[in-house]
Structures are given as structure tokens and as C-alpha cells.
Specification:
The chain is built from 1 helix and 7 strands; from the N terminus they run H-E-E-E-E-E-E-E. The chain has 152 residues and is mainly β. The strands form 2 sheets. It has a 4-stranded antiparallel β-sheet with strand order 1-2-7-6, with no helix packed on it. Strands 3-4-5 form a 3-stranded antiparallel β-sheet, with no helix packed on it.
Length: 152
């Protein structure tokens, strides 16, 4: 059985934070982002774009599979979620050694959609670490123009 040991900071005279400890303990060449929380966020980055005939959503989630995502439209809200769980086990009987690791990550994003989208014309695909979602606009629907309000 292994004993747990508290690691002391590399800079004993300066009060450290998790950020400094992480800086010295992380492998700086590990860009896999297996767990979004390791970069300080549980939410993947999203790009939103509107063209004349559709809305486009791009969600950056490297290392996942298309089966890991759930994309829904409910009550004019686009819902994108994911749950992924991995488990690895390694053992050597001759050394009486067992190592078991697990990784769990999940996220949920929601986006209010305008009234002029066509819920029946939605497409989603996952390629090169990015989930692409396209939602068509209803035929003949025009985007309302922005109105500037004067502040008095």
C-alpha cells in the first residue's frame, strides 16, 4: 500500500497558490485537454455565427467522439451537452502493484434561439475536434434590424 505524502511548495518563503504549484507540476507539453477543468474551465469554447440563411455554432471539444454529444432544441433553446467517462486499470502481480485511474468530464451549454429559425432543419457533425451545428432560418423571415436608443 502506498503512503500519501503532502508535497511542499518549490518556493517555501513565498505563499503559493494552486496556479504556481500547477505551473511546476504540470507537463507543459501535454496539450491533450483530457479534462476541461485542468485549464480552469468546464465549458468548451464556442463560436456563434449568423448568415443570411442559417445560424452556425462551433464548439471546440478535442479528444471526444460524436457519440459523446447530445444536441437538442427545446422551447427555442439549443442544448448541447456531453458526458464522458474513462477508466484505466494496470496491475503487476509479481510486484503487488495495482493502479486504477478514472476520468470524468461533462458540460452543458444552452443558447436562446430567435423565433425565425426552422427547428426541422438542423444538422450537426463532429470533425477535427469541433462540433458543428447548423440551424436553417425559416423561408421569408427577415432579421430585425438593430435600433439605437439615445441616452438622455
Amino acid at each position: 500500500m502506498e503512503t500519501l505524502v503532502k508535497r511542499k511548495s518549490l518556493l517555501p518563503l513565498i505563499p503559493t497558490t494552486n496556479l504556481i504549484d500547477d505551473l511546476f507540476s504540470r507537463d507543459i507539453f501535454d496539450w491533450t485537454d483530457r479534462n476541461f477543468s485542468s485549464i480552469g474551465s468546464n465549458l468548451p469554447s464556442v463560436n456563434l455565427k449568423e448568415t443570411d440563411n442559417k445560424l452556425q455554432v462551433e464548439l471546440a471539444a478535442p479528444g471526444m467522439k460524436k457519440e459523446d454529444f447530445k444536441v437538442e432544441i427545446d422551447n427555442n433553446t439549443l442544448l448541447i451537452s456531453s458526458e464522458k467517462q474513462e477508466e484505466k486499470e494496470e496491475s503487476r502481480k509479481k510486484d503487488n502493484y495495482i493502479r486504477k485511474e478514472f476520468n470524468y468530464q461533462s458540460f452543458f451549454r444552452s443558447f436562446a434561439l430567435p423565433e425565425y429559425i426552422d427547428e426541422n432543419k438542423i444538422q450537426a457533425n463532429y470533425k477535427d475536434g469541433i462540433l458543428h451545428v447548423e440551424i436553417a432560418k425559416k423561408e421569408g423571415s427577415a432579421k430585425k434590424t438593430a435600433k439605437t436608443i439615445a441616452i438622455q
